[in-house]
Amino acid sequence: MLLNVEQSAPGTFAPGTRPRQFAALIAFLAASWAVSLLGSLPIRMNAGWYAAADKAPWTPPGWMFTSAWLALYAAMAVAAWLVWRQQLFPRRKALTVYAGLMLLNLAWPLMFFGLYPALGTAALWLALLLIAAHTALATVAVLRFGPISTTAGLLMLPYVSWLVFSASLNLYAAVHN
């Protein structure tokens, strides 16, 4: 049985590793926010149809999406960093799942927003399939991260919840547009 034991106390670093740990955290945050920025391009370029689309009554205002995603990307980056810095357990599979999540974060807006003008409703249904796979992989991330770092696993839970919520918005859009 794996014990979830941090190598050092939270917030502390072994002597000489503080700059490396800090640089790695900054790299995880930068990569995560770069994915966020790239993923927002199809939204910005094709938002016209969505503004006129029939949206779910529970759709939050646009600014909330931006705020939520920035916070979620930060939490995901910190979770991945916590997994990366843990030396007591194999981390490769967990970090591979994280990389897969980053790819899916790029793919969904391209499918939903970018391909809608060309494919119409079919793009929304394909995006729904993609977000279902995305949610499943995010759940796998919780299960992979948790045994390595409880905090990392917990940091991924809001992401899974947001994906489920987003899937409900995607389903509504697919059915009604």
Q: Quick recap of the structure?
A:
With 177 residues, this protein is mainly alpha-helical. The chain has helices spanning 18-45, 47-52, 62-85, 92-114, 116-119, 121-148, 150-176. α1 (18-45) runs parallel beside α4 (92-114) and α3 runs antiparallel to α7.
Helix count? 7
Overall geometric form: elongated
Strand count: 0
Round the Cα radius of gyration to an integer and report it.
18 Å
Range of helix content: over 70%
Largest sheet composition: none
Proportion of beta-strand residues? under 5%
Instruction: List low-pLDDT spans.
Output: 7-13
On the 0-100 scale, what is the average pLDDT? 90
Secondary structure category: mainly alpha
SSE arrangement, N to C = HHHHHHH
Give the distance, in angstroms, between the N- and C-terminal Cα atoms: 50 Å
Could you describe the 3D structure shown?
It is a single chain. With 177 residues, this protein is mainly α. Helices cover 79% and strands 0% of the residues. The chain has 7 helices and no strands. The longest helix has 28 residues. The N and C termini lie far apart (50 Å).
